[in-house]
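thread from #wetlab-drylab

HS: before we spend reagent money on co-crystallization trials with fe (ii) ion, can we at least see a predicted complex? here's what I'd submit
DV: go for it
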Amino acid sequence: MIINTDRYPVNDLSSTAAQLWIAEVRGQFERDGSCLLPDFVNPVTLEQMAQEVRGITHLAYPGPTEVSPYFFNYQLGKDECLPEAHPLKHRGRRNLAQVAADLIPAEFLLNQLYRSRLMLDFLGAVSGQPIYRNQDPYQSLNVSVMAEGGCQLWHFDSGDMVTTLLLQAPAAGGIFEYAPAIRSDEDENFDAVKAVLEGNRERVLQNRLQAGTLSLFRGHYSLHRVTPVEGKRQRLQAILGYSTRPNLCGNKESSILHYGPRVAEIEASAPRYPG
Ligand SMILES: [Fe+2]
């Protein structure tokens, strides 16, 4: 069993203990915009899982190094004339590389976890609606690799329940920081976002993740970043693409940007994207 079912009863969700646990996870997720599940993967299994992933980190592609916090909201503020200090004009540093889904072998423990029915059932129970795997051939499951100095700028995500698993923690740094629910569908709250971008810490919380921790995070509404990694041990984090939308798929342009020219070559000869 990959998942630590002694601690988390994902294999028996109808039991009273599981129902109580799910209610707690859901409550925490809705209240804090984040829920951490330490030792979600059995410690022995985790070591093997991390070992497998360490064997493919050389396949990671760096992607863009300077991006907007609103990277995923391509249309936001597009035609507006904005002052230079506006959050939409802000550019931050992204220093990480990602291993694309098609480079993670099906037999890897990480891939087995991602594809397991238990994960869909568990996340479905937490969100109260059916959950599906992202259908994108490259974006569905990723490993983010941060070497010394690696970091991720303040940004918002596209998905509302971002599911990540830390496989290997760095010696120091690489801390996940976030400003919970700083924006909503009704209000971008640019003044508060600007304050965080300029260094104000009032709304900022930290999650010091341990390897093996599964994290559920409302990244669409909470501004977040990863502080620079210190030391030689890489920070390895899996991003497990799940969604309430059954056929969610990214696009070729975004995948070429994030996973490199090899995607363009594949799509030119044996396309994986429809059309
Ligand atoms: Fe993110």
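DV: Residues 16-32 form the longest helix (17 residues).
HS: ok that's useful, forwarding to the group
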